[in-house]
Task: inverse folding
């Protein structure tokens, strides 16, 4: 017969195992390496509606050379907000010819809409201040991998 203490230990081990198996709240997406004005970034690619809607929500950390690239099939005005997003981010709106046309800073957890001023094909979110620190401004070109669509 198992003691009460043994049962408690088994229960705690089982709960720990379940916690370790728990799926991330927002798992990482496929990544690609891009460069902006010769500076490398490893970015997750959000291409589906679900991936774009989820974005970087619930994430607590991100490296200085990391980000998320939002990709659409056509140029249009794009709208972003920071609901459930804890990281302070900067966003670059990027035209279909891979030129940054606008950069905005965004406030964590804010539901204020950040709008692209022009029609764009891509948006790139990075840690706030990275663009400024690296001297990346509107007019900078993005270099995508050769096989990137």
Result:
């Amino acid at each position: 017969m198992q003691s009460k203490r043994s049962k408690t230990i088994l229960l705690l081990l089982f709960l720990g195992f379940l916690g370790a198996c728990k799926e991330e709240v927002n798992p990482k997406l496929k990544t690609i390496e891009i460069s902006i004005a010769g500076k490398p970034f490893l970015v997750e690619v959000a291409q589906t509606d679900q991936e774009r809607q989820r974005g970087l929500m619930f994430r607590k950390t991100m490296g200085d050379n990391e980000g998320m690239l939002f990709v659409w099939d056509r140029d249009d005005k794009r709208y972003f907000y920071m609901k459930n997003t804890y990281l302070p981010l900067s966003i670059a709106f990027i035209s279909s010819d891979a030129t940054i046309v606008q950069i905005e800073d965004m406030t964590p957890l804010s539901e204020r809409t950040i709008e692209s001023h022009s029609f764009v094909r891509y948006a790139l979110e990075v840690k706030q201040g990275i663009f400024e620190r690296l001297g990346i401004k509107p007019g900078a070109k993005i270099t995508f991998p050769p096989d990137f669509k």
The chain has one domain: 25-143. The helical segments are 4-21, 49-54, 130-134. Strands lie at 31-36, 39-46, 66-76, 79-80, 89-94, 100-106, 114-115, 120-127, 142-143.
